[in-house]
Design goal:
The chain is mainly β. The protein contains three helices and 26 strands. 12% of the residues lie in helices and 40% in strands. Strands 3, 4, 5, 7, 8, 10, 15, 16, 17 and 19 form a ten-stranded antiparallel sheet that branches. Strand 12 and strand 13 form a beta hairpin. The longest helix is centred in the N-terminal third of the chain and has 21 residues. The radius of gyration is 27 Å and the shape is elongated.
Length: 388
C-alpha cells in the first residue's frame, strides 16, 4: 500500500504531494486572477430615477451612498425634471464621491469613458473664455478631465501629468444630443448620438496616479467658467467603452427620454398684476435657501400653446442659494415674455417653498416659469432686509 495515498480519484490513489501541488496551483490561479482583473465598470451614473438619482460604485464595484444620493449644488443651479441638472451659471458637485471614485480610478489601466446628454442654451460669457459642462478633479483648480464649450465648439481636455486638448464638434443651436468620449492607451474616440465622429492618439499619462477629485458640472476654477443649459444621464467608467457599448448607452438615454410624458407649454406676453409676498433668507427661523413666489399676469398676447383665460398665475424664482434674481425686481404693471408649464407637472418642486398670498381663487391653476434665471448685480443684492 502506498503510504502517501489519502484517497482515490477515479479509482486511482491520490498522494499527499499531488494534492499539495493542486492546492498551490489553485491558490496561485485565484491570486493571479485577483491581481490581473480588478473591477472595471460604471463608477458613477445619473439615473433619472427619483428613488436613486445618482449611482456611485467603489473600487470593488459595490454600490455605495445608496439608496438615495444626489449632488450638492452652489449658486444658480437647480434640480429639474427627472433629476436632470439645470445650470444657470452655478455648480453641481459630488463631494461625497471623492474617495470612492479616486480608488476606482486606480483600477483604470489608464482608461476612462464619460457620457452625457446635453441640452444647450445660449452661453454665458466666461471670465476665462470657456464654459465648463462636466468635469472631474478639484472645482477650485483646473480639472483633470473636462468637457468645455468654447464659443460654438465643444472641447475635451485632460490636464494631469500629460495634457490633451481635443475639439470634439460644433455645438448645435438648440438640439439636444448625447456625447461620449472614450480614453485609452490605444486611442481616444468620441461619439455623438452613438456614432463615432473622431479619434486621436492614445493617452500616455497616468490616470491611476491622479490626485483625488470629484465630479462637477456647470462651472469650474472658482466660478470662472459658467455654463447655461441642462445635463442628464452623465456616466463615468474606469475603462474604455467600445462603439457597441457607447451606442447602447445612447439608446438607453434616448428611450427613457422618449417614454417621458410631455408637458404642454404656453408662451405669452403679459402684464404683471400682482405678486405674492415671500419670506426672505434672513427672516427669523426661515431655513430655505430658495423660494418660488406666485404672481398673476394679464395675458396681453398669446404667442403659442392653448389658454382661454385673461389672467394666469405663475410661480417664479425670487432667489436661489440666497442669490436674488431679476424676477424679484419686476414692477407691478411691467410687461414680460414668459414660457410656462403647469406647476403640478413638476413633481421635483413638491417640497420647494412656495409663497402664495394672492386672493383665493379655487379655480386658478398655477403655472411654472421655465425660462432662464439671472442674478441681480452684486450691488443690488438685498442684505439683511435693507432692501426689499
Amino acid at each position: 500500500m502506498n503510504r502517501n495515498a489519502i484517497g482515490k480519484e477515479g479509482g486511482r490513489p491520490v498522494s499527499f504531494a499531488s494534492l499539495a501541488l493542486c492546492l498551490l496551483c489553485a491558490f496561485a490561479a485565484r491570486d493571479g486572477q485577483a491581481a490581473e482583473a480588478p473591477w472595471r465598470g460604471r463608477m458613477l451614473a445619473m439615473t433619472g430615477d427619483d428613488r436613486r438619482p445618482v449611482e456611485v460604485r467603489d473600487a470593488d464595484g459595490e454600490e455605495v451612498l445608496a439608496p438615495f444620493y444626489e449632488f450638492d449644488r452652489k449658486g444658480l443651479a437647480l434640480v429639474d425634471v427627472d433629476y436632470s441638472l439645470r445650470l444657470e451659471g452655478g455648480l453641481f458637485y459630488g463631494e461625497a464621491t471623492r474617495d470612492y471614485l479616486h480608488e476606482a480610478l486606480k483600477n483604470s489601466g489608464n482608461a476612462v469613458t464619460l457620457g452625457v446628454y446635453i441640452h444647450s442654451r445660449t452661453r454665458e460669457k466666461a471670465k476665462e473664455g470657456r464654459s465648463c459642462l462636466a468635469a472631474y478633479g478639484d472645482p477650485d483648480k483646473m480639472p483633470l478631465l473636462a468637457v468645455w464649450q468654447d464659443n460654438d465648439a465643444l472641447v475635451f481636455t485632460l490636464a494631469a501629468d500629460e495634457s490633451v486638448e481635443i475639439k470634439l464638434l460644433r455645438m448645435p443651436d438648440t438640439e439636444p444630443f448625447h456625447l461620449a468620449v472614450a480614453v485609452g492607451r490605444d486611442g481616444i474616440a468620441w461619439y455623438r448620438n452613438g456614432k463615432r465622429i473622431g479619434a486621436a492618439a492614445g493617452y500616455e499619462g497616468d490616470i491611476a496616479g491622479w490626485s483625488p477629485g470629484i465630479p462637477f458640472f456647470g462651472n469650474a476654477h472658482k466660478g470662472a467658467h459658467p455654463w447655461r443649459g441642462r445635463l442628464e444621464f452623465f456616466e463615468l467608467h474606469n475603462r474604455t467603452l467600445d462603439q457597441d457599448e457607447i451606442q447602447a448607452m445612447y439608446a438607453k438615454a434616448k428611450e427613457e427620454i422618449k417614454d417621458r410624458p410631455g408637458i404642454p407649454s404656453i408662451a405669452f406676453e403679459g402684464e404683471l398684476l400682482a405678486r405674492s409676498k415671500y419670506p426672505k433668507p434672513w427672516d427669523p427661523g426661515y431655513t430655505y435657501s430658495e423660494v418660488l413666489s406666485i404672481g398673476e399676469y394679464r395675458i396681453v398676447k398669446l404667442i403659442s400653446g392653448e389658454y382661454a383665460g385673461e389672467k394666469i398665475r405663475v410661480a417664479e424664482w425670487m432667489y436661489v442659494d440666497r442669490i436674488f434674481l431679476t424676477n424679484s425686481r419686476k414692477a407691478i404693471g411691467s410687461r414680460h415674455a414668459l414660457t410656462v408649464e403647469r406647476l403640478d407637472r413638476h413633481a421635483h418642486l413638491t417640497t420647494t417653498e412656495r409663497a402664495d398670498t394672492l386672493e383665493l381663487d379655487l379655480d386658478a391653476v398655477v403655472h411654472y416659469a421655465r425660462g432662464p434665471i439671472e442674478a441681480l448685480p452684486p450691488g443690488q443684492q438685498p442684505k439683511g432686509g435693507k432692501r426689499e
